[in-house]
DNA sequence: TGTTCACGCTAAACCGATTTACTAAAAACG
DNA sequence: CGTTTTTAGTAAATCGGTTTAGCGTGAACA
């Protein structure tokens, strides 16, 4: 367990000062030059023993860590982990490492992690903020002056850089699509949440229903509920409201729980009930029937985050900026009635109550 | 952007020495006591201004960071991210933060990350090692003396703590199950890899085939191949070997690509072809038909990792130890022929070549 | 009463880099 | 040739903690 050598060890060995070594390694500060022979001697030696400066000491002195913190709700959610991976790859290319952690929707934990990140002197933050940490983020920016990029949702009152998708438009298109494909009573299953991505999706749904003159069926489920419970709640919602013949789910995992509920009810998709999910999933295409979804442009989101952050790290002053990316509806089998394809026979369309057998 | 205050600022303010503060905050070192009044004064003040020591300085001086590094292939793989999350939750409880990153099967990147972790003075490592980093891990232990827990796979030559599942047993059970359910020609689709979890699975399959006196069909796919390409390769493998009437996939994502291939070939599961996946997936139960899988006990794996690591962090000397957890076969529709349930009519079983229409 | 010891506390060294401030020597200038 | 400027290099301060070594003072002991 031999000890790593420090810049001073090298200085002693080479009979030069630590200062010179530091200058050489950091590409000589303007005006402070090192002669070519000394420079070469140092470089060669450093190379030969594979010396790398101690990052902790470097961070302590400079206050910069070349680390970006990423904070999401749940790293095992494919939406977050996919974006996380793309971001990681790209920040890596410009010399930043990324440090990610998940809050599990626990405000205390989020605060704690944020504090830890700050203590570790991370250079910037990428956050899908959970409710309740608005003030911490505010504090982060004021006290530390570090750039913060929020994604998936944001706090309108904060001067952060935000990257989100057009939630309202996405939900609107999806709901409209269901109506146009002959589903007369489209329900919206969402979370009881006032985060703005959720309210946007709800808005989109309501707008579509309003424009089409259809009744609204909205189920708001509690946060932090386990999948089994969600399935039960969705199931009883569908049972209670027999008129419903299509459902738009507001998130990834609601769709999954919803599909389970539908399968328990022995309803056939799309014949008995149409389905569209918000957030696509690698597996939706493989389900039978395949599931129509509002796909978020993961790659674009990630790239925007990286780009905006990189820019903010360079510039001194940060200005608020919100980038809204389009969502895309990927139509698959679950939202298209086979006999509805011929739009000339709309009278063939029926509500589930009339044709299901249960 | 007011500056955070340091221990020296407090010392000046309170007219005590920084040493005393440090002693109080770190629970007075044996013999070096601080009188009760002073102690209280310090504690009260620290509390009132919410002072927290600078972790960077602390790490620089002590060499301990209270951070555990976690390195996996791909953080967006549900297997890794689920385990990661459980580990994160539990290490958090005992005062450690976790810092995870993915290697993307890139050896150079793995080495780089390992070096960065070391430079950041992490206290321990949790690694699903990719091939080629054996020497780096070796070096890590020798030079740093930090505890290392490998999981999912390990290097038999290294003195690490290992947590793995019974890959051979899992694959054996799965293959046997297919044979017993009337699938006469079971293929094994795996990766061209000599990592030991993979060779274990292959062993299990071969053993089952050997014991049942069946022919072996093995497809070894290259590493780091994109899903579309994988689908193509699996498809042509199934097309070429028409006798195959069941497939055991060696990993999560191979199963997904395989299902796509099977769907493209218009083969019905399980009538034309039986399917079992290694690694379960939240969505497999929702596919239609639902997919039989060898489930790894995610929670147990994570808990074992946490426990063993916690123990190693306490003790000074680490001893090698390999924990093998059982895998469980979760039988669903994809591996059970409807008409094969009545085992008394085994002659009804047929190979795909005789009944498919393509 | 003089010596020892324990207690309570602190000055200073240290971790390993960066950066400021300064010096000696060489070069440029008048 | 004397003075100023530039150049090459280094000593020392700094970041913010922890830890070692040591210093008075009062209590215990002989």
Write the layout of secondary structure elements.
2 copies of one chain form a homodimer.
Chain A: H1 7-14, H2 18-25, H3 36-49, H4 55-62, E1 67-72, H5 78-93, E2 97-102, H6 107-119, E3 124-127, H7 134-144, E4 148-151, E5 161-165, H8 167-180, E6 186-191, H9 196-212, E7 217-221, H10 227-240, E8 246-249, H11 252-264, E9 274-278, E10 292-295, H12 298-314, E11 321-325, E12 328-330, H13 352-355
Parallel strand pairs in A: 1-2, 1-3, 3-4, 4-5, 5-11, 6-7, 6-8, 8-9, 9-10
Antiparallel strand pairs in A: 10-12
Chain A binds a DNA duplex (30 and 30 nucleotides) through α2 and α4.
What do these coordinates show?
The structure is a homodimer of 358-residue chains. In chain A, the strands form two sheets. Chain A has a six-stranded parallel β-sheet, with helices on both faces. Chain A has a six-stranded mixed β-sheet with strand order 7-6-8-9-10-12, sandwiched between helices. The first copy, chain A, has helices at residues 7-14, 18-25, 36-49, 55-62, 78-93, 107-119, 134-144, 167-180, 196-212, 227-240, 252-264, 298-314, 352-355, and strands spanning 67-72, 97-102, 124-127, 148-151, 161-165, 186-191, 217-221, 246-249, 274-278, 292-295, 321-325, 328-330. The longest helix of chain A has 17 residues, at 196-212. Chain A has 13 helices and twelve strands. Chain A binds a DNA duplex (30 and 30 nucleotides) through residues 6-8, 16-20, 22-23, 26, 29, 31-35, 38, 53-63.
């Amino acid at each position: 367990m031999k000890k790593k050598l420090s810049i001073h060890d090298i200085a002693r060995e080479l009979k030069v000062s630590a200062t010179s070594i530091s200058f050489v390694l950091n590409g000589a500060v303007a005006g402070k030059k090192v002669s070519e022979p000394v420079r070469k001697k140092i470089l060669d030696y450093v190379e030969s023993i594979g010396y790398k400066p101690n990052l902790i000491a470097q961070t302590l002195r400079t206050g910069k860590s070349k680390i970006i913190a990423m904070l999401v709700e749940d790293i095992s959610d494919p939406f977050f982990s996919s974006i996380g991976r793309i971001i990681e790859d790209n920040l890596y290319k410009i010399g930043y490492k990324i440090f990610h952690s998940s809050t599990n929707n626990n405000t205390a934990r989020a605060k704690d992690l944020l504090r830890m990140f700050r203590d570790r002197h991370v250079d910037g933050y990428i956050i899908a903020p959970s409710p309740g940490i608005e003030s911490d983020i505010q504090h982060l920016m004021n006290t530390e002056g570090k750039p913060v990029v929020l994604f998936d949702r944001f706090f309108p009152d904060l001067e952060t850089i935000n990257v989100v998708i057009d939630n309202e438009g996405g939900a609107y298109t999806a709901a409209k699509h269901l109506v146009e494909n002959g589903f007369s009573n489209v329900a919206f299953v969402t979370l009881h949440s006032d985060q703005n991505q959720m309210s946007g999706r709800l808005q989109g749904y309501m707008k579509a229903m309003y424009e089409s003159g259809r009744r609204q069926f909205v189920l708001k489920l509690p946060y932090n509920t386990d999948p089994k419970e969600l399935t039960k709640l969705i199931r009883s919602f569908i049972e209670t409201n027999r008129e419903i013949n299509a459902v738009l789910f507001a998130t990834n995992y609601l769709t999954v729980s919803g599909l389970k509920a539908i399968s328990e009810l022995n309803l056939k998709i799309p014949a008995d009930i149409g389905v569209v999910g918000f957030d696509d999933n690698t597996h939706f295409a493989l389900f039978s029937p395949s599931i129509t979804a509002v796909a978020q442009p993961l790659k674009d989101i990630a790239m925007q985050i990286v780009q905006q952050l990189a820019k903010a790290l360079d510039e001194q002053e940060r200005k608020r900026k919100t980038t809204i990316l389009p969502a895309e509806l990927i139509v698959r089998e679950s939202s298209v009635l086979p006999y509805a394809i011929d739009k000339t026979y709309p009278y063939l369309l029926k509500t589930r109550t009339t044709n299901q057998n249960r």
